[in-house]
Amino acid sequence: MIASPAHPAHLVIGLVVWSVWFVVLYGGLSVACAVAPPAPSTGALTWINGVLLLLTLLVTGALLVQARHCLTAVRRSHDRPASGLMRFLPAVSGALYLASAVATLAVGLPVIMLPPCL
């Protein structure tokens, strides 16, 4: 974790984490289906979906922790004098972390209902 929530790297870290997760999710799904596809009759309750759901929840949790870190820094900056940039960067970064967390859940939660290797 980068120490200062006002660091400009926070503006892209959430989206980079989401994009890496996206590639790992679908790349891992493709490899798992090629190596050891489960029987279609098992439905969505397979080891592949379990691993993908766990990965989704871990990444979402990490993104939400970072969002909270940035947004509490914005709240704390109202108590003491700070420049506009020291408030703007954590606020936008927190919003981007939240958007990345929502996107992660939106893409990852269908593993609960859909069989993996269609």
UniProtKB/TrEMBL annotation:
Transmembrane segments: 12-38, 44-67, 88-113
Keywords: Membrane, Transmembrane, Transmembrane helix
Keyword Membrane (UniProt): yes
Top-level taxon in the UniProt lineage: Bacteria
Protein name: Uncharacterized protein
